[in-house]
Structure formats: structure tokens, C-alpha cells
Amino acid sequence: MNRKHFPAGWDESRVERVLDHYNAQSDEEAVAEDEAAFETPTHTAFEVPVDLVPEVRELIAKHRAS
């Protein structure tokens, strides 16, 4: 039996819309979208050792709750 599980607020229709969006993008559009994601002044991206990920997630959760 194949059961589909979606995160809260998501359904098959929404997943299809997201897939359609990315499948329709040219390579140039995809690169531009990726680059734009790193230009936000309020967030950053960096590598974290896998064994520290739970601690980082906990810190982020505490920050959001404050």
C-alpha cells in the first residue's frame, strides 16, 4: 500500500504546482532564483557538521520562540 504524507498545509495539488514551477524553469532562471535566496540581509547559509545539526536546530527554535 502506497500512502502519501504531506507536511501541514501541503497537498498533492500544491506539490504538483511546485514541481511544475521548477520543471518549467530555464537553467538561467534556476540559477537566478538560487542566487537571490542568498541575498537576503536577515539570513545566511553555512555548513554545519552533521553531529551539530540537532543543537543548531534547538538554538534556532529557542531564538524563534523568544
Strand content is under 5%
Number of β-strand runs? 0
| Class from helix and strand fractions | mainly alpha
Could you name the ranges where pLDDT drops below 50 across 5 or more consecutive residues?
Answer: none
Shape type: extended
The N- to C-terminal Cα distance equals 43 Å
Sketch the topology as an H/E string, one letter per element: HHH
Q: Would you tell me the overall average pLDDT?
A: 91
Radius of gyration: 17 Å
Overall helicity:
55-70%
What is the subunit arrangement here? single chain
Counting DSSP H or I runs of 4 or more residues, the number of helices is 3
How would you characterize the largest beta sheet? none
Q: Can you describe what's shown?
A:
This protein is an all-alpha fold and 66 residues long. It is 56% helix and 0% strand. It has 3 helices and no strands. It is extended. The model has no long low-confidence stretch (mean pLDDT 91).
